């Protein structure tokens, strides 16, 4: 199961990053991007070609006058494989990916016990199961694990809200069990990085990501860099006020994002309105079918989501707004109300920001965990 963890450094990692994200690229374009001479470029790429990380690909004649073939460089995506695992309060959801975060296999395990040792053992077992899917039994290079909470030094969970953890050395525990390097990160930070490098935010220098589900998350990319701070893991946007006379959250706020948009809030309000328990999906289906009680709750939530998008757009002026999380289907069912909420807080002369919806399953989150490991391998940080 052990993979070779040898992060690239200096100009080498910049070369690999350019090719990873935008390859194949000609040598001339690479030299221009990283400001290297042809000789320096050859010297740096030679060991990467010999190791199989890079490969020359044919792109036809580069100069029709001489017919000399161009041989751009590209990453061999299958040269390294990574496992990404997203932890919720109930499950560990995992993916096996290539170096370009292409998902090869998926897996899931229940978390019946939240003790750190048991969770680490579950993560390790899931990682081994996914590693067995690597073609030719090449093993995996690294493991990324994400969860809702605060993480320090990419290894220690300072606090984990859904697992009830404080100061848990999760990276060390999983590394001891797997003998593979492990990177631990906050889940919204990882999903933002994944969206930025390989998803709906690729090539977009400034975008924001809003997630709705068990909690409310917010990620921001500015100048092609993820904005990261200790505050990012606190879910501060979850208590942004949206509907003054709305329901109250557990902190006493009336009509904040958490009180209106989390899956629990929606389920609680629709169940109360109907006088019986419903699931989140049933609540959405009832609203889509025109049930008055469900429609009112979902419509109010959609309106609140629109106002939340407007606030994010007004403050950060993104080129694109991306909505993700397991509750994302709300944006489809309450599409009209989302637009109403968006427009009430936007100047009429300003066009709507482009809005992209991610898939609602946890595979996207697990892929984000894999991307954190990929970034560590490529960037060496």
Largest sheet: 5 strands, mixed
Q: Structurally, how many domains make up the residues?
A: 3
Count all strands and give the number.
17
Secondary-structure element series: HHHEEEEEEEHEEEEHEHEEEHHHHEHHEH
Measured distance between first and last alpha carbons: 22 Å
Shape descriptor? globular
CATH classification class of the largest domain = Alpha Beta
- Can you count the helices? 13
Percentage of residues in strands: 15-25%
Radius of gyration: 23 Å
Please tell me the CATH architecture of the largest domain by its name: 2-Layer Sandwich
Contiguous low-pLDDT stretches (5 residues minimum) are none
> Under CATH, the topology of the largest domain is which?
Nucleotidyltransferase, domain 5
Q: Order of strands in the sheet with the most strands?
A: 7-6-5-8-12
The percent of residues in helical segments reads 40-55%
The CATH superfamily of the largest domain bears the name ATPase, nucleotide binding domain
Mean pLDDT: 91
Give the structural class. Answer: alpha/beta
Q: What does it look like?
A:
- The protein has 381 residues and is of the alpha/beta class.
- It has 3 domains: 10-75, Arc Repressor Mutant, subunit A; 80-193 and 364-379, Nucleotidyltransferase, domain 5, CATH 3.30.420.40; 202-357, Nucleotidyltransferase, domain 5.
- Helix content is 40%, strand content 21%.
- It is built from 13 helices and 17 strands.
- The strands form 5 sheets. A 5-stranded mixed β-sheet has the order 7-6-5-8-12.
- Strand 2 and strand 3 form a beta hairpin.
- Helix 6 crosses helix 13 (363-379), helix 8 (263-274) packs antiparallel against helix 10 (292-316) and helix 10 crosses helix 12.
- It is globular and about 70 Å long.
């Amino acid at each position: 199961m052990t993979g070779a963890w040898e992060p690239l450094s200096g100009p080498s990692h910049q070369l690999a990053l350019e090719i990873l994200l935008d390859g194949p690229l000609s040598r001339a374009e690479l030299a221009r991007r990283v400001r290297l001479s042809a000789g320096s470029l050859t010297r740096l790429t030679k060991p990467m070609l010999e190791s199989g990380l890079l490969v020359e690909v044919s792109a036809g004649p580069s100069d029709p006058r001489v017919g000399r073939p161009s041989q751009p460089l590209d990453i061999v995506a299958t040269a390294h494989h990574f496992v990404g695992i997203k932890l919720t309060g109930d499950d560990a959801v995992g993916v096996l990916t290539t170096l370009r975060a292409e998902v090869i296999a998926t897996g899931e395990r229940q978390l019946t016990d939240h003790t750190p040792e048991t969770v680490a053992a579950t993560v390790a077992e899931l990682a081994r199961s996914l590693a067995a899917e690597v073609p030719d039994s090449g093993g995996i290079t690294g493991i990324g694990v994400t969860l809702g909470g605060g993480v320090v030094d990419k290894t220690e969970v300072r606090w984990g809200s859904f697992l009830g953890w404080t100061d848990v050395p999760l990276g060390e525990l999983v590394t001891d069990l797997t003998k593979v390097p492990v990177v631990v990160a906050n889940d919204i930070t990882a999903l933002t990085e994944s969206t930025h490098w390989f998803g709906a935010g690729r090539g977009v220098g400034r975008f924001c990501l809003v997630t709705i589900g068990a909690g409310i998350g917010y990620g921001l990319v500015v100048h092609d860099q993820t904005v990261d701070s200790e505050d990012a893991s606190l879910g501060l946007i979850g208590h942004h006020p949206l509907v003054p006379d709305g329901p109250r959250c557990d902190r006493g706020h009336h009509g904040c994002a958490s009180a209106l948009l989390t899956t629990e809030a929606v389920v609680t309000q629709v169940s109360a309105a109907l006088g019986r328990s419903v699931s989140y999906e049933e609540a959405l289906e009832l609203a889509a079918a025109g049930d008055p009680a469900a429609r009112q709750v979902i419509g109010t939530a959609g309106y609140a989501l629109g106002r939340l998008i407007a606030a994010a757009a007004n403050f950060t002026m993104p080129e694109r707004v991306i909505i993700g999380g397991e509750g994302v289907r709300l944006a489809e069912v309450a599409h009209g109300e989302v637009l109403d909420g968006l427009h009430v807080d936007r100047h009429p002369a300003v066009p709507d920001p482009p809005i992209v919806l991610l898939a609602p399953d946890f595979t996207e989150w697990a892929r984000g965990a894999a991307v954190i490991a990929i970034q560590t391998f490529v960037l060496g940080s």
